[in-house]
Amino acid sequence: MERIYKRFMQCIGMACAIMFFVMFAVSFLQVFFRYIMNDSLIWSEELARYLFVWISFLGGAVVMERGSHIRIDILESCIRGMPKKAILRVAKALSLAFLAALATSGFMIVGLTMDQPSAVMQIPMGLVYLAIPIGSLAMMIVLAKNFFRGETAGAGEVR
Length: 159
Prior knowledge:
Layout: H1 2-35, H2 44-66, H3 74-78, H4 82-113, H5 125-129, H6 131-149
Helix pairs in contact: 1-2, 2-6, 4-6
């Protein structure tokens, strides 16, 4: 099971890296065409924006796996021992509930927007919004793994 999880996280990380490279290349091409060739690529800004959305949601799972999400830890730093572990478990449970609600809402949005084309590239907007439930499910997998193993990483604590 651990091997499948590691492969899953590698795939997400690789997908983010590829999307980032494509986003960078498209943005570079846009600047080149606009300022050197005096002509604009009409699709580049839209593609870069949609790739950024996907990178943000999938990257959230990678950051969560590393325990690097931003957090406010005033309460956590004041408490030690068993109460601290309980607070971290409650925080993870609440995060899981939020991500489940986000994934559910995301799938509803995807269903509603699959027939709506994007402005320039004419791709279904549902494919763009699919980043919300996919990213939420990926983050839920990371949190669930850490929750059921009793690990504190994933709730903001760096390993």
